[in-house]
Each structure stands twice: as structure tokens, then as C-alpha cells.
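Feature request, filed as a ticket because there's no other form

It would be nice if the structure record came with a short human-readable summary line next to the C-alpha cells. Right now we just get the raw output. Example of a typical job, pasted below so the devs can see what we mean:
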Amino acid sequence: MADLEVLVSTTSAEVPLPAYSHPGDAGADLTTRVAVTLAPGERTTVPTGVRIALPAGYAAFVHPRSGLAARHGITVVNAPGTVDAGYRGEVKVTLLNTDAVETVTFNAGDRIAQLVIQRVERAAFVHVEDLPGSHRGEGGFGSTGVTG
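Raw output as currently delivered:
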């Protein structure tokens, strides 16, 4: 049973709607609507043929598929890609082949990414001269890792 209704249109009748592979999955599969080949180190933006209308207060996030990442080194360059509630254009996915040797080919209809729908908050950004303290303070990249 779905918790949220999302309106979807496609660029053609052959384009499948996003679909969950298993009960309880967080991400719905997105497919490519065109054949694409990625040489080692190559990236390209792939059309899915899917357009969505999200309700206000929600966003969709495009994530890599773990199997493609593990088996072929395929990832989403701007992971997660953000689809805002007001966007009505075609969802496209920028794929990157991180494998140093193997070329990867996708046929139209192959699963290339997954779409996760989430409720999002809209923040009011308030300027202050100083931020309140915290346990972490200004520690940034690598500040919680092992030293030496």
C-alpha cells in the first residue's frame, strides 16, 4: 500500500513508471529510455522518460543502484540528484562509469537508478554573529577519524 500518491507522465507509452522491486524498498527503479554506452571514466546524462508532480513539502532523490555500483562501477555523479516539487520536466540521470577497464552498455528499458521520495522541511535562515557551541565545534572533514 502506498503512503503518497505521485502523479507521473511519460514521454512515450513504452516508458515504464517508476516501480519498487520488493515490498519495503525505499527506492523505485528508474530506467533509461535510450541505449547508452559508457567507456571507462565516461559520464553522460541519461533520459528516463519520466516526469513527476510531487506535492509541496516533498522532494525526490535519485540514487545509484547498489548492484550496478558493485558489479560495474556505475554511479550517479551528483548523488543523490534532487528533483524539487515544482519541477515538471523529464527526470534525467547523470551516470559515471568508474571502472578503469570495462565499458558498460545499457539498453532502453534497463534499470539505471532509483528514486527515493522524502518529505522535506523548508528552513528559515537566520543570520547571527556567533553560533552556539557544540561538542564537535568547527571540526570538519576527517575530524572524527583516526590520526597518524
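Something like this underneath would help us a lot:
DSSP finds one helix and ten strands in the chain.
The beta strands are 7-10, 28-31, 36-38, 43-53, 58-63, 74-76, 81-84, 90-97, 104-106, 111-119.
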